[in-house]
Amino acid sequence: MTEKFDLHGFLPFVLHHTSEKVSFGFRDIYRDRYRMTRSEWRVLATLGQYGPQTATDIGTRTGLHKTKVSRAVTSIEARRWLKRQQDETDRRIALITLTKQGESAFASLTEAGIIYNKKVRAHLGERDFDALIDLLAKLENM
């Protein structure tokens, strides 16, 4: 007998659906407060968390395609939240750094992120939240 396929028990479907639902709660914050896209938020957060990087580094850390990184960097640069500095040895590479204004936006959004994360943690409970983080790390390293 063949096992019946259950879409709502299929892990990739469940993870994607849940990720979207959880992400939408925070999306409302960065979208409403700063009119940012998800890609722009990820780029800003990555630069704020890890410091100056190349677009390739940002793409690797965020999982964003290079065209999305490029568009996000251009948009954030237009707000004067970041600056690019050409590499002296390889002019094709630019080091991307947050400006003071970008650092301020990052600080504001991370405060909101901490509050949002606490809300999710409270909803799940400490033990389940920590277990979920551990299980997701295991899946990521699969």
Class per helix and strand makeup: mainly alpha
Which residue ranges are poorly predicted, with pLDDT under 50 across at least 5 consecutive positions?
none
Q: Figure out the total of helices.
A: 6
CATH fold-level name: Arc Repressor Mutant, subunit A
Describe what this molecule looks like in 3D:
A hairpin with a 7-residue loop joins strand 1 and strand 2 (94-98). The protein has a two-stranded antiparallel ribbon. It has helices at 11-34, 38-50, 55-62, 66-78, 100-124, 126-140; strands at 82-86, 94-98. It starts with 10 loop residues before the first helix and ends with a helix. With 142 residues, it is mainly alpha-helical. The protein contains six helices and two strands; from the N terminus they run H-H-H-H-E-E-H-H. InterPro entries: HTH_MarR-typ, MarR/SlyA-like, WH-like_DNA-bd_sf, WH_DNA-bd_sf. This is MarR family transcriptional regulator. Pfam families: MarR_2. Residues 8-141 form the HTH marR-type domain.
Write the layout of secondary structure elements.
Blueprint: H1 11-34, H2 38-50, H3 55-62, H4 66-78, E1 82-86, E2 94-98, H5 100-124, H6 126-140
Highlighted features:
142 residues, HTH_MarR-typ, two-stranded antiparallel ribbon, mainly alpha, globular, single chain, 2 strands, MarR/SlyA-like, DNA-binding transcription factor activity, MarR family transcriptional regulator, WH-like_DNA-bd_sf, Arc Repressor Mutant, subunit A
At a glance:
Helix content is 69%, strand content 7%. The chain has helices at 11-34, 38-50, 55-62, 66-78, 100-124, 126-140; strands at 82-86, 94-98. β1 (82-86) and β2 (94-98) form a beta hairpin.
